[in-house]
Amino acid sequence: MSGLVVTRLSVHGGEQTIVDAATLSAPAGQITGLVGPNGAGKSTMMRAALGLGETVGGEVHFAGADLLAMGRRERAKICAFVEQTATTETRITVREVVGLGRLPHQPSWQAEPSEKDETIVEQALAAVELSAFADRVFNTLSGGEQQRVHLARALAQQPRLLVLDEPTSHLDMRAQRHMLELLRGRATAGLTVLMAIHDLNLAAGYCDRLVVMNYGRIVAEGAPEDVLTPALLRDVYGIEASVIAHPVTGKPLIAY
Ligand SMILES: Nc1ncnc2c1ncn2[C@@H]1O[C@H](COP(=O)(O)OP(=O)(O)OP(=O)(O)O)[C@@H](O)[C@H]1O
């Protein structure tokens, strides 16, 4: 299958099983949302799928290639990761942060970014509407602005698989919509997107598929309208909620 296929991936943390034989797929050209309560194991699973952290078993393939068998650089040419909190202590500019996305593509002898790298960085900054911030020191940006810079860095990496951990957590409503529509456009162009997201209404609105994780296990997978049922919300989140059709889009809308 084209896209990401994770098969029986397990991660332990001390005595605890954090990810328990997780099997899921994220098809190419689609946005797959990874949802589940705090501590369910979403971040750990995504990191492990990208070869970050120790796995104790399982396989991860992208477009048929074994991601865990690849070297870091080779993998970084294919996969980009936007982590939940990624701060830096150094006085690095926004343009330099985004430029980090070009590193996997630059030959080791290349000391400076090429003209092509510079163009790609400018395009990525424009895509997240931060061109005017290019020379600002990254640490001086707001949380939401920093989140958009990290997306720009990932876009500059020109990945085929984009994995994001809570990319909208610091964003206002307009910025959330802008980011999710940007991801939608990239997915339509063929990108594989796997995104952990807590806001189930946003997830229902923008994801083609949802994968639900609870206590380290995948407990449901499918179209938002099939997955987001009152019974699942009760079982997984412990809440009594109504699921109605969004008056404009018809997508599931959770009221609680
Ligand atoms: N190295 C570790 N050792 C022990 N426990 C760990 C370790 N790393 C993570 N955990 C625990 O594993 C569980 C899963 O953490 P993880 O960050 O993957 O959850 P999550 O679903 O992404 O949560 P959130 O929605 O809050 O971001 C948590 O209970 C966390 O405390």
Automatic annotation (TrEMBL):
<dbReference type="InterPro" id="IPR003593">
    <property type="entry name" value="AAA+_ATPase"/>
</dbReference>
<keyword id="KW-0067">ATP-binding</keyword>
<comment type="function">
    <text>Part of the ABC transporter complex HmuTUV involved in hemin import. Responsible for energy coupling to the transport system.</text>
</comment>
<protein>
    <submittedName>
        <fullName>ABC transporter ATP-binding protein</fullName>
    </submittedName>
</protein>
<keyword id="KW-0547">Nucleotide-binding</keyword>
<dbReference type="InterPro" id="IPR003439">
    <property type="entry name" value="ABC_transporter-like_ATP-bd"/>
</dbReference>
<dbReference type="InterPro" id="IPR027417">
    <property type="entry name" value="P-loop_NTPase"/>
</dbReference>
<dbReference type="GO" id="GO:0005524">
    <property type="term" value="F:ATP binding"/>
</dbReference>
<dbReference type="Pfam" id="PF00005">
    <property type="entry name" value="ABC_tran"/>
</dbReference>
<keyword id="KW-0813">Transport</keyword>
<feature type="domain" description="ABC transporter">
    <location>
        <begin position="4"/>
        <end position="240"/>
    </location>
</feature>
<keyword id="KW-1278">Translocase</keyword>
